[in-house]
Amino acid sequence: MAVRREYPPRSIEASDVLAGRVEPNYFKTLTRLMAAHALAEKLTAQGYERAAGFITDGATLATVRKNLAEEHKHAHLVYAALAELGLAEARADRSMVTALKAPSFAAPRRFAAQAAEPLDLVMASVSLDMTGLIMIGVNYRESSYAPHARAADIILAEEEDHELFAAGELRDAVEQFGAERVNAALRSWLPSAVNFFGPPGSGFTFDCLSYGLKSRDNAELAELYLSLLQRRVEQAGLEMPELSSEYPHFVMS
Ligand SMILES: [Fe+2]
Ligand SMILES: [Fe+2]
C-alpha cells in the first residue's frame, strides 16, 4: 500500500495539534493509536506482574521484575503524551473498550489475565516483546508526532533487552519442558501474536500512514515478525506452526 505521507517524522508537537495546525482527523487518529499503544504496554505490565507471582527461579524472577518496572514506565510515557493532548488515562482506556475485544488484543489480554506457568511467560515474551520491538522500532520511532517518537526512543532501548530475554528463553524452554510442550504452546500463542499487529489495509491504518503516524502496514510488520521468529524457532529445534493467510490468523494443521 503506497500512501503519500503528509507530515515528515517528528515534525508535529503537542502545541501544533492543540492549536489546530494539523488536519482535524490527525488528533483522532493519533489519540486512538497512542491509546492502543498505552493499553498494550499496561496489559504487558500486568502480565509481568502475574508472572512475578508464579516464577520461582531467582534469575528469571529478577528479569521479570525488571521488565515489569519497565513496562509500567512505557505505559506511563504514552499515557503522559495522551494527557498532554487533554486525554486522561481512564478516558483513553474507555475509548479502547471495543478494540480490547478484538483478535489484535488477544495476546496482551491473555498474558494479563491468564498466564499461569513459566511456559506462558516464555510465550508472552515471544508474543509481546518481539512484536512490540518491531511495531515501535519500525513505526513509532518514525512518527510524525514527535512526542510519540521520543517515547519510542526510550521504550526501544529497553525492549531490545526484553527481546534478548525472549530469544534465550525459547532455547531454555526446550531444555526445561521438552520440544513437544513448547511446540504445543507455540501453536496456541502464535496466532494471537501475529494478530497483535492488527488487520491489514484498514481505513485506520491508511489514515495513520498518510499522517505519518505509522510507516508500514500491519501486514508487512506481521510478515517481518514471522520471518524473524521462524529463524529463532528453527534454531531452538522447534517447529514453526503453519498459519492461515488471512487476518485473524489461526493454525492450519
Ligand atoms: Fe514495553
Ligand atoms: Fe517489553
List the helices and strands and how they pair.
Blueprint: H1 14-18, H2 24-54, H3 58-84, H4 89-94, H5 106-114, H6 118-139, H7 146-177, H8 179-195, H9 203-210, H10 218-235
The structure holds fe (ii) ion (2 copies).
Short description:
The chain is mostly helical and 253 residues long.
Top keywords for this entry?
253 residues; mainly alpha; Ferritin; 0% strand; globular; binds fe (ii) ion
What does this structure look like?
- The chain is built from ten helices and no strands.
- With 253 residues, it is mainly α.
- It is 69% helix and 0% strand.
- It is globular, with a radius of gyration of 18 Å.
- It has helices spanning 14-18, 24-54, 58-84, 89-94, 106-114, 118-139, 146-177, 179-195, 203-210, 218-235.
- The mean pLDDT is 95.
- The two termini are 30 Å apart.
- The protein has a single domain (14-235), classed as Ferritin (Up-down Bundle), CATH 1.20.1260.
- Helix 7 (146-177) runs antiparallel to helix 8.
- The structure holds fe (ii) ion (2 copies).
- One fe (ii) ion is lined by residues 41, 44, 71, 74, 132, 155, 159.
- One fe (ii) ion is lined by residues 44, 67, 71, 129, 132, 159, 162.
**How many strand elements?**
0
The kinds of small molecule bound in this structure are:
fe (ii) ion
- On the 0-100 scale, what is the average pLDDT? 95
Return the CATH architecture. Up-down Bundle
Q: Kindly identify the CATH topology.
A: Ferritin
The fraction of residues assigned to DSSP E strands is under 5%
The topology string of helices and strands comes to: HHHHHHHHHH
Helix content: 55-70%
Please identify the top-level CATH class: Mainly Alpha
Tell the overall outline: globular
Question: How large, in whole angstroms, is the Cα Rg?
Answer: 18 Å
Query: What is the structural class?
Result: mainly alpha
Domains counted in the coordinates: how many?
1
User: End-to-end span in angstroms?
Assistant: 30 Å
User: Oligomer, anyone?
Assistant: single chain
What is the CATH superfamily label?
Ferritin, core subunit, four-helix bundle
Low-confidence stretches: none
**Biggest beta sheet attributes:** none
User: With helices defined by DSSP (H or I, 4 residues minimum), what is the helix count?
Assistant: 10
